[in-house]
Amino acid sequence: MTSFCPTTDAAAAADPDAAAPGLFAGRTISELATELRAGRTTSVELTRHALEAIAGSGPRVNAFAHVDAGGALAAARQADRELGEGLDRGPLHGLPTGIKDMIDVAGLPTTAGSAHLAGRVARTDAACVRRLRRAGAVIVGKTTTHEFAYGPTGDRSVHGPTRNPRDLTRMAGGSSAGSAAAVAAGMVAFALGTDTGGSVRIPSALCGVVGFKPAYDAIPTHGVLPLSRTLDHVGVLAPTVWDCLTVHDVLAEREGRGHRLDGAAADAGLAPDTGRVGGLTVGWLTEEAPPPGDPRVAATVRRALETAVGTVPDVVWRRARPCRDAFSAIQSAEASALHAQRMEQAPGLYDEEVLRRLQAASAVSPERYAAALDTRGALIRAVGELFGRHDVLALPTVPITAPPFGAREVAQDGRVIPVRDALLSLTSPWNVLGLPAFSLPAGTVDGLPVALQLVCRPGDEAKAAALAHRLTP
Known about the structure:
- The protein has about 475 residues and is α+β, with helices and mostly antiparallel strands.
- It has helices spanning about 10-15, 30-35, 45-60, 70-85, 125-135, 175-185, 200-205, 240-250, 265-270, 295-310, 320-345, 350-360, 365-380, 420-425, 430-435, 460-470, and strands at about 65, 95-100, 140-145, 165, 165-170, 190-195, 210-215, 235-240, 270, 275, 280-285, 315, 390-395, 410, 415-420, 435-445, 450-455.
- The strands form 3 sheets. Strands 1, 2, 3, 6, 7, 8, 9, 10, 11, 12, 13, 16 and 17 form a 13-stranded mixed β-sheet that branches. Strands 4-5 form a two-stranded antiparallel sheet.
- Helix 3 runs antiparallel to helix 4 and helix 11 crosses helix 12.
- The longest helix has 26 residues, at about 320-345.
- It is globular, with a radius of gyration of 21 Å.
């Protein structure tokens, strides 16, 4: 079995380009919850560890745009009091978390990484944040984002760029850069992000943690600053797939489904060399003309998958390119419409790269946008073709490893690959289709994490997670 473990203290000491991990690195929600209830730790102690980790690695990684130490410690003390009085709000009770700076948290700034929103303080919690508070989670601050979430690199923000904790010379990915970096560096138990074209899964893949984009509208986006209203999702970043589903159940207001699967139970569901886990069939998604990338990434990810479940057959998808084209038109039209007034009145407040992209996006005509929506509808109706014989589809999350910090092109086999196009190429179709998608660590290439993406139908998330458990126990 191929798996990826978070950086250890020894590894960090040996690699000066890596950030030393905090207390939460590799610690599952279940483990932390057990320690809390056994009295071996308190929410206040966990929160102090989180704040210390943020302060210790903050200047190097830059995962947080705003830290609320006083509010977090007050919430932690309340969580401890409630547990002491017998009030247990569930598995997230007392656990520190970070919230992407696109999501409103009452009393804290929501700036979307932009000078346009400097001084903006949220008056109320976003719906997803209210649900986290009801579950007893402790919000320690707001994580960094690519400006207005409009970029997959995570290095364009008024709060400064976010670096990859695994290698500080590499980008963290975006747009939920801070959330991925905070989890990878062990600063928090889990974090929330948003995902419009891959913004949870891309940084998760590059930083070596698990990311989950639920089905469209499974988690409410009320109180989340929009980028593209028909593509935006709220997602979760955490050490394990079960952690992601535990948080998802809280955010989606589902009753807990017991997301604890021990190794014996997972092994019992495996039929070796069949591409099956329990009653699930798995297919490897391919295209007739795949987008450019590093072939070692795909080979490593597929090898990890097949080591876990046996030979996995190819599933050729002939509608990937139309899906990516529809994504580009829809996101461009909706983002430029949202920003039209700001671009006209105060263009100088944008990061120059973000402004150029928004200006280019405004060239999408109403006719092209309408055609893209029609294409999207047809693709959604036809998505059953992908699942005709397979319950879960597998492919790399991104086809390259984390690019060097600040890079906009990478060379591969004599070709120059645009970084943005590569990062989005395998994630954006699932936003168009609104399907649940996981990203989970699946090995390394040149010492950098690579990731497997698992896509399923709405309602099959826990089944796909059973497969994911085989790769990341």
